[in-house]
Amino acid sequence: MFVRHLTLQDFRSYESADLELTSGVTTFVGLNGQGKTNIVEALGYLASLSSHRVAQDAPLVRAGAGQAIVRAAVLRDGREQQLELEINPGRANRARLGRSPLTRPRDLLGKLRTVLFAPEDLALVKGDPSERRRFLDDLLVARQPRWAGARADYDKILKQRNALLKTARTAADRQAALATLPVWDSHLAKVGANLVYARLRLLRDLQPYLQLAYDEVSAGQSDARTSYKSSMYDELADQLAAGEVPDVGELEAGFAKTFEQQHRAEVERGQTLVGPHRDDVVLQLGSLPAKGYASHGESWSFALGLRIAAFQLLRHDLGTDPVLVLDDVFAELDAGRRRRLALMVADCEQVLITAAVGDDVPDSLTGRTFTVTLGQVKADDD
Ligand SMILES: Nc1ncnc2c1ncn2[C@@H]1O[C@H](COP(=O)(O)OP(=O)(O)OP(=O)(O)O)[C@@H](O)[C@H]1O
Ligand SMILES: [Mg+2]
């Protein structure tokens, strides 16, 4: 698929922008702070309903404006669809597909797929577990949008269960306060088991692509791997870390057993200590964990390898290419890595690249160039 047209209104530094895009490679060049990343961030937001830079919506709306609008014409197999999202900080966002308003913005998911790589992705390797959980869950949703619903359900149940545990902690009659806990246990176990199962399957499917992508980027044979670090009781966690994928029923039973083991600790701390929200993915290079061991360049290649692997997996699953976005990547890479990355992305249906220095992007990636100056975008061939 590719984006043929992109419109921004009051998004970040743009009062308004209209971009006519083509398939193939497009490069946005401009000095620091001119608004290059803002463009691809808008596209990423339309695809995933979240920004790769901020957790809140307010910074996405141009200072002084009340709402932002992002609109795109997406072409897939010769069919064009108009996607529109209205970002209303503090209020519900609104989405349209073609002329029809959608009940929920979430219904937009799957209409545009992007894989975005940005400097922030170094946090996938060096950052908190929440970064890696987000990578997995976002990819789950990109693969199958229905997982967005499961994620939302899980968060709701988790909130309720935490509230209950918190109340019980200080309640005069703890037993009474915990009376409904078993109900929440079974809800959490059911939705949680499905999520963990989906993540395990995803990691298993991603593995071959990751290994290839890492080696291609780094021109080495480095055995880049992932292993799931679960909050379940030890024996089960060991199984999952070894790459086994039990069925959902076994995982659900695993929750019940772990809840039992953790009961005292959960009540004492007033929070849920088991579940996908406590899990992590260990990234490994050979026998060593990447976090704490990998060099800067290796960490960078690993993060890039994860994104390229995600792209390849989606390409394989969907039978169409997601839009590949490379934000500020080339400046960080040495000449060999630049060349190899250019080779890897040359056959993608649409690649959007941002660069402060145009010369950092290898010549082999000839495409259209836009110059970005102070929130104005202009095609060089205009
Ligand atoms: N909500 C907003 N309202 C107005 N301006 C904003 C808003 N959010 C960000 N900006 C401005 O947008 C600019 C940053 O844009 P962007 O991150 O796209 O730059 P860039 O061209 O990618 O720069 P670099 O090369 O440094 O990555 C900053 O000048 C910032 O002040
Ligand atoms: Mg930028």
From TrEMBL:
GO cellular component: a single term: cytoplasm
GO biological process: one example: DNA replication
Binding annotation for ATP: 30-37
Domain RecF/RecN/SMC N-terminal, chain residue ranges per copy: 3-355
Subcellular location(s) per record: Cytoplasm
Cited InterPro entries: DNA-binding_RecF, DNA-binding_RecF_CS, P-loop_NTPase, RecF/RecN/SMC_N, RecF_2
Keyword Nucleotide-binding appears in the UniProt entry: yes
Superkingdom field: Bacteria
GO terms of molecular function: ATP binding; single-stranded DNA binding
Keywords assigned: ATP-binding, Cytoplasm, DNA damage, DNA repair, DNA replication, DNA-binding, Nucleotide-binding, SOS response
Keyword ATP-binding listed: yes
Known role: The RecF protein is involved in DNA metabolism; it is required for DNA replication and normal SOS inducibility. RecF binds preferentially to single-stranded, linear DNA. It also seems to bind ATP.
Family: Belongs to the RecF family.
Protein name: DNA replication and repair protein RecF
Organism encoding this protein: Flexivirga aerilata
Taxonomic lineage from the root: Bacteria, Bacillati, Actinomycetota, Actinomycetes, Micrococcales
Gene designation per UniProt: recF
